Amino acid sequence: MNRLAALLLAVLGAIGLLAAPRRTVKVAVFTHVPAISMDAEGQAQGFYVDMLKEVAEREGWDLRFVPGTWQEGLDRAQSGEVDLLTSVGHAPEREAYLDYGRMPSFTVWSILYAHPRAGIHTILDVRDRRIALMRGDVNGEHFRELCGRFNLPCTFREYGSFGEVLGAVAEGQVDGGVTSSTFGYSQETRFKVERTPVVFSPFDIFFAVAKGRNPDLLRALDAYLAEGRTRPDSGYHGAINRWLTPQEKGVLPPWARRTGLAILGLLALATAIAFVFRRQVRAATAEIRALNAGLERELAQRRRVEEQIFHVASGVSVATGESFLQELVKHLAQATAADVAFIGESVHENGAARMRTLAVFTEGGPAENFTYDQSGTPCERAARGELCVVASGVQEAFPRCPLLHDMRAQSYVGAPLVDSQGKALGVLAVLHRQPLASPVEVTSLLRIFSARASAELERRNTEGARALLERQMQHAQKLESLGVLAGGIAHDFNNLLTAMLGHMNVAQMKLAPESPALPHLESLERIIHRAADLTRQMLAYSGKGRFVVRPYDLNHVVQEVTHLLEVSIPKKIALRFHLAPSMPLVEADAAQIQQIIMNLVTNAADAIGEAEGTIRLTTGSLKVDRAYLEQVFQGQELAPGTYATLEVSDTGCGMSPEVQARIFEPFFTTKVTGRGLGLSATMGILKGHHAGMRIYSEPGRGTTFKLLFPVTDTQRVAETPQVAAPALTRKSTVLLVDDEEMIREAAAAVLESLGLSVLTAEDGRQAVEVVQREGERVDVVLMDLTMPHMDGREAFQAIRRLRPNLPVILSSGYNEQESIQDFLGRGLAAFLQKPYTLRALEQTVLAVLAKQT
């Protein structure tokens, strides 16, 4: 009984399964022969239909094919009227409403067809032409982008299907039309259109569904494709082979058949009438046979070109990034049977145009890249934007090109690579060691793929420029941050030195001339000045170190420091000067430029070491353009124009690229002893002078620092000799304002030693209160710039409101240009740079008081 029940249940289950409804899957169909289309009886056909039927049988689907245009299929997918789309390429605007399968179903590329009388042979020939595109098609969008990159204006007309596109071309409604490779190759003879060499943008196509709907359809199709693409005997490959196998075409065109029939008729007539015409008939027959053989060769050649294009496109479509260029030259060499294929970019080194290869394929594999001079080579012609084709005897045509000799080349074909703005980027070239048998075929291939190679080079250059800009910004930000730190430290250090120098000057005044302590104080004064020099280096590093800027001749600046240079380097090292006879003037601080020269010369001497060597100082002028300025050290923003140049070169050990990348970092040094501030200060001084630097150095071959200073039209003004401070005619009162107590004590002692009365204030707020309280008693104000509560700027404005004619002397640990920027044109009486000596304080204060009497 139990067995009978179990058997009954099994039978009922099987009946239930048989009765289960099959899932209906609606598939959009558009005219895309041989991929998918509707035949005359209204039945769907094509290799996609065969694939879907195989999957439907496996998955239990009931397929319903919905015909329409491609755009209608996209719209129906969004609205839910269809469940599945075929032949869908990725496009940004489709990502919002479509989900794609993971596995590509096929790889296609785009082809431009033309009317036979349109005369379109290259992409450049489409300028101002009428071009047909299928509405909503990725191939058409690729063509629009291609025309945009080459700046080619066209009139685009949209049609509902590829068939309408080629029909419009055939009827002369448009000059050309764009289709996919699968449709074009199968239908071009039916429409009697001309296939152009403009083949571009290989891309993968996928199955797709409406976003968020029917993911199970994509999973089933992905599984089918993953299995089928790897097995040559699968249903996937069977479907493609059935529909893409080329159909046998007649070997003779219609005119040839008519000519053959006519000749055969003449032959029959000649045989019937007289034997005398037999020889002529035989000759005509031989001519027809030769023509037939030529046509067969032409057809075979065209099939070979198609196979080569497919081979190259398939090879490079999967490559990305750095591997793309290597894959390109590899497949191009194989397709053209070239012995050497390479892609190179144009570069400028030391003023000469050179070609640097990015990928080389020879001897059946990749080879190392190399650089060579363009001058006298066929690449020079190609780099100018000309297609260079030398089918044989290329070494004789270009005898100055060692590359051709080294490669044993007999032929050369090179296509220019240009970006979207028409700027030359480089060359794509192939070399053969035998005369070229089919130059037209090779030229067509290079024309096709030079556009894709150009786009890749432009992308690489754009990314490189962006990375360079990021490095420059990071470097500038690092210099700015360290500059702010160095400037702040120098300011505080100058306050300490000012107090030390003031107290020491007072001590010197109070000691008798014969006191044994005076020599020690003089030594201390020299030490303080050396410390002040260090703070000036720190200010220079921060880019705020200019003090006295005047028009100078660089020759005079160099000559003034010549003796100091000669005694600063070992006698084994020869110092040579090559000064231009006439130099334009530059706006500069001579002392700081001399500091740069000293830093560079001492570094050069250290690089030479104990050996004999030479250091050369060379001046001149140079007119530079933007390309040259791009090679100047990062962080220096210079404008094209005329610059005065100063070069310091040595025969020392040179520098590696790693050392060059760090030489301007503060506290970085390769010396056994040293602070590592010399070149950091040099960069700060150059920044303050709006100047730049270029470095030439190789390990073992010495180093050259080339400085560029912007020239000025301002004429040099003769310096006025210093005069002694005027004597006071009455006792005056000085208001001394500084937040540092030690500076107030030291400066007050110095001022009182001059016979002046001194009032003090700790900040700007107290200074204003003193002026309000003391009124006309205050004759001059000596005030620090940086103070708490109320700084020197605010206090100056408040004092000017109370006493408009009261002279104010500003004092700061920063330099004069940085400090008085906000006081220009407001009546500032004078400026004192910290640390200042008793002599400087006396001259400044007494000179200001003398003007008030």
UniProtKB/TrEMBL annotation:
Specify whether S-adenosyl-L-methionine is a keyword of the entry. Answer: no
Cited SMART domains: GAF (SM00065), HATPase_c (SM00387), PBPb (SM00062), REC (SM00448)
The Histidine kinase domain covers 488-713
Return the EC number.
2.7.13.3
Residues folding into a coiled coil are none
The cross-references to Pfam families, in alphabetical order and at most eight, read:
GAF, HATPase_c, Response_reg, SBP_bac_3
For this UniProt record, give its keywords in alphabetical order, as a comma-separated list: Kinase, Phosphoprotein, Transferase
Tell me the residues on which 4-aspartylphosphate occurs.
Answer: D784
Q: Which InterPro entries match?
A: CheY-like_superfamily, GAF, GAF-like_dom_sf, HATPase_C_sf, HATPase_dom, His_kinase_dom, HisK_dim/P_dom, HisK_dim/P_sf
Residue ranges of domain Response regulatory in the record:
733-849
Q: Out of the domains of life, which is the source? A: Bacteria
PANTHER family with a match to the protein in the record: SENSOR HISTIDINE KINASE, TWO-COMPONENT SENSOR PPRA
This one is known as histidine kinase
Q: Which organism is it from?
A: Geothrix oryzae
